[in-house]
Amino acid sequence: MKRYSAFAIAREAVRYHQGWERAWASPVPKKEYDVIIVGAGGHGLATAFYLGKNFGITNVAIIEKGWLGGGNTGRNTTIIRSNYLQDPSAAIYEKARSLYETMSQDLNYNVMFSPRGVMMLAQTEHEVRGYKRTAHANALQGVKTEFITPGKVKYLCPIIEVNGPRFPVLGALWQARGGTARHDAVAWGYARACSDMGMDIIQQCEVTGITQAKGQVTGVETSKGAIKCKKLAMVVAGHCGVLAEKAGFRLPVESVALQALVSEPIKPCMDVVVMANTVHGYMSQSDKGEMVIGGGTDGFNNYTQRGSFHHIEETVRALVETFPMISRLKMLRQWGGIVDVTGDRSPILSKTPLGNCFINCGWGTGGFKAIPGSGWAMAETIAKGEPGALAAPFGLDRFKEGRFIDESVAAGVAH
Amino acid sequence: MLLLTCPNCGVEADETELSAGGQAHLKRFAAGSSDDEFESYLFHRSNAKGVHFERWRHSYGCGKWFLAARDTNTLEVFGTYPAQTPEPPKDLIAAIKKKRPDWKGFAK
Asked: Is residue A359 within 8 Å of residue A365, measured between CB atoms?
């Protein structure tokens, strides 16, 4: 792999950009791998990357039904934060956030991480108390956040209407080191690094069955033939239930549609991420100038990657109330992704009832921010056969034991 | 927009009038059940991609619960029926099988 650098750009500039190589190879699948990862989204690719980087396991295939990064990795609103209430969540999301800080250097790929600050508005007394509690919890967890006044909110983001008629801004939970990153670049950067380590990324290859013998996984049936493996990891987000059914077990997960939309590009007007959970909406401005907008999920099971129109209306109404200046902005595009939601709104990184088969799912509406931490913890679980400190609290057994990591109260709508 | 006919009041309601209530026909377990049974009843869901039986409430209409059969992959609605039905009606199952020959049938 040729390194990307300022020198490389200069070199290619003088030879008409003829020398750029493909970022990753598209090989024919081998007969057998040490580890097969199903799902080449951010989480699957990050898992593969840290298997190679941290554990030297490189005989790995990453199998993808569509194209890499084409699921929720390419459909989110790119927000990165780690201001969670519960200790296990804060640990894994903070690990992820800290890995984002050096990701461009680690992968030699510009993921455009922009630690511009994330602000979660408190617009009711309950939220004020909740966010103050979170700020105290974060202080104990070593995650730097603070509860700021409406004056500071207005100073950081002048386009907010802090004296709104329905829900005036009473303060905010502010994480200065949160921000955004280029979502596609995260998938592409990991894919390039994995391919460079000798891993096979196999796109347009659907897993149609999981073969097993004596309670142990032995391989997968795919649209490109049978492939054997010693260990299998399912990292397929919204379709985890479909894949688990093929493996013979059920998950405590339901798949629903979550939508996002972007406006026409405008001049820079806000340089922070703002989330308004009471009114159900969040917004940031991309480097292209588009306002990137997200809201709540639909209530019913759905695999269509498009959501209900009335949710867009609710989200936009909420944001017009919070940011009156966007009222005449035109929306350019809208899309949906299928998110896998668990009962306690926390993810699952776990062994499964099938031997040597591991699962990483349940990130629900907030998976993008966790990609590097999730990959790190999942790689450890696969390599050692047992979850490490980061992944252990997120086991499937927590549902039987009633040991929930209850973030639905802490995170509200935008998780 | 998703339209479901409420079998209680007969209104063809759009989804802004309705609340989704999750998977229907769950087998309930009470005191004395094992941990596995409780876990399965409380948390494990079919989460089917395709034919799905589910509970709905006509919240901003008559306020009553009913059941619906729907395809989660195409959003096609096969039919609705009263909440007091312990299993999907036979004629509804037959109609779904006609439209979806590959469907494995109703399973709890």
From this structure: no
| Assigned domain for A4 exists | no
Mutate which: A243, A256, A303, vs B, most B CBs within 10 A: A303
Residues pairing with A251 in the sheet? B45
Nearest CB neighbour to B47, from listed A254, A298, A308: A254
A26 contacts A203 by C-beta, under 8 angstroms: yes
How many domains is chain A partitioned into structurally? 2
How far is Cα A61 from Cα A232, in angstroms, rounded to an integer? 10
Of B1, B47, B49, B51, which to mutate for an interface test with A (greatest number of A Cβ within 10 Å)? B47
Contact B44 A303 (CB under 8 A): no
User: Does A216 share its domain with A319?
Assistant: no
Domains of chain B (ranges, CATH numbers):
3-25+35-99 (3.30.2270.10)
Domain that holds residue A391: 24-93+182-252+344-411
Convert the pLDDT of each residue in A123-172 to its tens digit: 999 999 999 999 999 999 999 999 999 999 999 999 999 998 899 999 99
Using CB atoms, pick whichever of A300, A303, A308 lies closest to residue B1. Answer: A308
Instruction: Of A93, A29, A88, A96, give the one whose Cα is nearest residue A63.
Output: A29
CB contact under 8 A, B45 and A250: yes
Given a cut of 60, whether residue A208 has pLDDT beyond it is: yes
The CATH code of the domain that includes A394 is 3.50.50.60
Q: Residue holding tokens 């029926």?
A: B81
pTM, 2 dp: 0.94
Contact B45/A400, CB-based, under 8 Å?
no
Q: How far is CA A317 from CA A180, A320, A393, in A?
A: 24, 5, 38
